[in-house]
Specification:
The structure is a homodimer of 324-residue chains. Chain A has 324 residues and is α/β, with parallel strands linked by helices. Chain A has helices at residues 16-28, 50-62, 77-80, 86-94, 106-116, 126-130, 135-141, 152-163, 175-182, 200-204, 229-241, 270-281, and strands spanning 3-7, 32-35, 67-70, 98-101, 120-122, 168-172, 188-199, 219-225, 250-257, 286-287, 301-303, 306-312, 315-319. Chain A has a 7-stranded mixed beta sheet. The first copy, chain A, is globular and about 55 Å long.
Chain lengths: 324, 324
């Protein structure tokens, strides 16, 4: 199967049990796992100081692995933006190394896209994606949080990515989206459009910097965790007001989770945010329900690759690879 | 004394007792208080829908008052940015109306500065600034949160602003700042430099939009509430990476409050963030300790006005008005 290089570009790994389980799962799936020497380094809240994490990213680029997988997100990559080994990363991608991660990793993905055009993959990280405990782990751990283990859909998408056979992904649109899209006779929302995006807060943190990818006519996907709808709206409005959204073929919203509405909200919620965005954006379709975000069921998405976006009988399909 | 127009451009007023106390305090100070008809309007989490709040801002601009004071912050002004009555607001400022507020109000202040150059005041809002309960209020309220009432320093600064006699403000620098600044023989850090800034998250929410004020050689002041140091750092890094910080004469940090460090932080804190910023920024001094933010002791600061920034024997002084 695949040679997978595991490294830590962002936050320190605190859940070592999840780390070990993740490696064992990848091995049990038949993959060869190589662990970066500083994968478990710690410095303050980071997986080693800035120089340590930069070196780890350099080793991941030089690994010759099929997949370079982050252990986790957190915070730390924006500190490294001026010094990332962009050329080495782009060369690695050119030679077939797939860089996979999400959350904080969005910053590296967008900066690499801006500087080199090299595509990467938005997908799971080792600990949260492959290290999720199942019932037998919990019994062993005496107190580990019992979940049902890694998500089956994520695993299937990861295998498709790792073996290079994936050619797209699809999801059932929520009812409100289906109603809206009925009015569009042509279900082909985007053709050969650059797919980009990731974590909304991280996307925002690149705006105005030299690492912002100026994507025109793209498909922008966004997700976030722990951000109240008013903050999600504020971020989306900024993207709108900066002219970014109107220049895209479509906006695709993934999962927005782990926020809490308060008594002050009085009916203001994420649905209102999406409705408001649609009212302001008008010409650019906003789809929701993409299975991507800080949730177990995550598809893998090729950031920086041309995609087609189709809507057919209430299903959305993002297609890449050899299909168009 | 002053004619004060009270209006609600952002979040709905929920604490009506604080609202009433604030008005009574201003009246007791001798001011004439005019309350906007929609000051207590509510729509979802907002003080009325967007059209209602826009109309209130228009009435504040047309009021002819000496001071137009917001009832509170919250969230809502970024929604209005494309439609704010910029010319009417600038005309009102030209005729002597001082627009005062903070937090969400930062968005209006920076947009007005960008579009018209008109100065405004960063300062208290009615409810949190003047509505703070004291011991006698709590006794009356049977359960109201007893504090010591409005802050004396804020009240003195507000009176200076309202009567137009204020010419500057000063504060004792923290020890670390004093050590750093010893190396600078010349304590005159900025001369005739535009003072700008406010709430850090709101400043960030303007970046890349048509309402971003392109201030060169200014003094940028920043505060925030409820933002973890890693998020404060991420925002400061973005301003640095966007080239904004290096173009200023000085950065002045106010109060950063109501965040909670977690077990994952392991020594990463706000001091580390400030140290890291200083190490990266090098040529531009970063002062801390400005008495401004989501705290009772707040000075009033003229956003968009030229200021001098001086450091003398461990004190910092921001001077405006007729003194230079």
């Amino acid at each position: 199967m695949a040679h997978i290089y595991v490294y830590s570009p962002s936050g320190a790994v605190r859940d070592r049990a999840a780390f070990r389980r993740g490696i064992q799962r990848l091995q049990a799936m038949g993959h060869e796992v190589e662990v970066d020497p500083d994968a478990l380094a710690t410095f303050e809240r980071f997986a080693g100081d800035d120089a340590t994490r930069l070196a780890a990213i350099g080793r991941a680029a030089a690994s010759g692995a099929d997949v370079a997988l982050t252990t986790r997100g957190g915070y730390g990559i924006t500190r490294l933006l001026p010094d990332l080994p962009y050329k080495a990363l782009a060369r690695a991608v050119g030679k077939g190394t797939r860089l996979v991660g999400f959350s904080d990793f969005t910053a590296l993905q967008l900066a690499l896209l801006a500087k080199t055009g090299a595509p990467t993959w938005a997908g799971p990280s080792l600990c949260e994606g492959f290290g999720a405990a199942d019932a037998s782990d919990a019994a062993d751990d005496h107190g580990g949080k019992a979940t049902s283990g890694p998500d089956e859909i994520m695993l299937a998408c990861f295998d498709d990515m790792a073996s290079g056979v994936g050619e797209g992904t699809g999801w059932r649109l929520p009812k409100a989206d289906r109603e809206l899209l009925k009015a569009r006779r042509d279900g082909h929302l985007a053709h050969d459009a650059t797919l980009w995006g990731g974590n909304l807060a991280m996307v925002m943190s690149m705006l105005g910097t030299p690492w912002w990818p100026e994507v025109e006519g793209g498909v922008l996907f966004l997700e976030d965790v722990g951000e109240h709808p008013y903050r999600v709206e504020r971020m989306l409005l900024q993207l709108l007001q900066a002219g970014v959204l109107a220049r895209q073929k479509a906006i695709v919203l993934g999962q927005f989770t782990e926020y809490r509405l308060g008594p002050q909200d009085k009916g203001f919620n994420l649905t209102k945010v999406v409705d408001g965005l649609r009212a302001r954006l008008k010409k650019v379709p906003v789809l929701t329900g993409l299975p991507f975000g800080h949730v177990p069921t995550k598809v893998l998405l090729p950031v920086g690759r041309p995609v087609d976006l189709l809507v057919e009988e209430g299903d959305a399909m993002l297609l890449w690879g050899h299909m168009h």
